[in-house]
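quick one, 512 residues, struct below
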Amino acid sequence: MSLTTPPPSVLDLSAAPLATGLRIGGQVLEGSAAPIDVINPATGEVIVRVASADEHDVDRAVHAAADTFRSGTWSRLAAHDRARVMHRFADGIEARMKDLYTLETTNNGRPITETRAQITRLPEWYRYNASLLLADRGAVVPLRGDYHSYTSRFPLGVVGILAPFNHPMMIASKSLAPALATGNSVVLKTSEQTPLTALLLSDIAADAGVPPGVLNVITGLGPTAGAALAEHPRVGKVVFTGGTEPGRAISVAAARRFAKATLELGGKSPVLVFADTPVEVAARGAAFAAFIGAGQTCIAGSRLLVQRECYDEVVDALARITEQIRLGDPAAADTQLGPVISERARSRILTRIRDGVAEGARLVTGGEAAQVPGLPGGYFVQPTVLADVTNDMQVAREEVFGPVVVAIPFDDEGDAVRLANDSPFALGSAIWTRDVARAHRVAEQLEMGMVWINDHHRLDPSSPWGGLKDSGIGREGGWESFHDFTHVRAITVRTAPDDVDWYGGRATGRLN
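---
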């Protein structure tokens, strides 16, 4: 691990005036709950204080969204016109790109090089879903007899999106884009820790021509505002990214009213390294999988499974790379690892590391809080490698959600698949091998929502993203997501020349 020298000044936020109020029905409102201090995790200092919604505010936001939906200003707007607004929205995001990645880096502590690389892709999601809107077609259903049957789709109504702190804009946009494209109204509840970019995004949407009440943004605490949104009877679909237990509660709340739910929850993604992969290639790939975003991502490659014959070499190489990762101020261009989101998160991560060592894991490198020069209040954690872990240890089965990777040896292909699938989580996975046949063969045996081969963390608006088991349900991206923001209706037209006269003595054929 190495430490970067902090830049002479923090990121300049003057070019991006900080929005702090709730956005409901086109109005900027103060919340009814106590305001929330938004913290810069690199310094531990307050950036700004924002409004906080209570149950009453959430109800007001949902009703504003529902009233706008019923008015038809967006829900019944012609597809070409709605797509045109979506493209203007994407243009507006591009125009404010620097403001967005500056805000997000300051707000969640992710290094600015990572944040810029991720947020510059946001317009793709809005343009892609605008294109799906224009490309979408109903299906003709072949019925027996003199009938013409076809399907059409219509929006759900109000969609509630509960965004996380780790990738606030990217994760929100993965669902916001298809929800808007298909004609829904949205209430977006930000993480209380990272609300700033979503508030700015609502202003960009309004400037692009998204009608008032179509995109409502509320800030507030999860147990109050988040729970009220998930449980609201007028919300037709809930999208949530976060922990498994809150996701389970949200799923139950949605099921009670037969609402849809897309839940991207916990993960303990296995990275399978076979001995035919060059050691340095495997180690670099493992570090990328584990430490991007300070490991604060559900898809992090936090469970490294290495073929026994190259296990020691890969672990040693990974340790060497890990010790060279540059911790520092997220504003610095050469920083490779920023802080975790809060002091509470740092304490939890360090406790998990100590518990893993107590279980029998070998601490190879890291394992402590890091002190960064010039940033004594920052929530930094040394990137950590734990080796000689067994798959039944808690540190191998529970999500740490920090810069921690556990290394586990395996014997052969069958053993690797068994270990990879032996987890309560099933979000993503990666395979490192030079054997093309093995890559496909193993990928088909991994019971995961996503598999990368010789890579990790890659996403695209056209590719379905999501998991199973304790990693959640539903998909973001592609047609799978786009259509899940709609209902389907079947329309059947009788084309026979005679009238229906079932009770007039001419009853023939079938009822169904």
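DSSP finds 16 helices and 24 strands in the chain.
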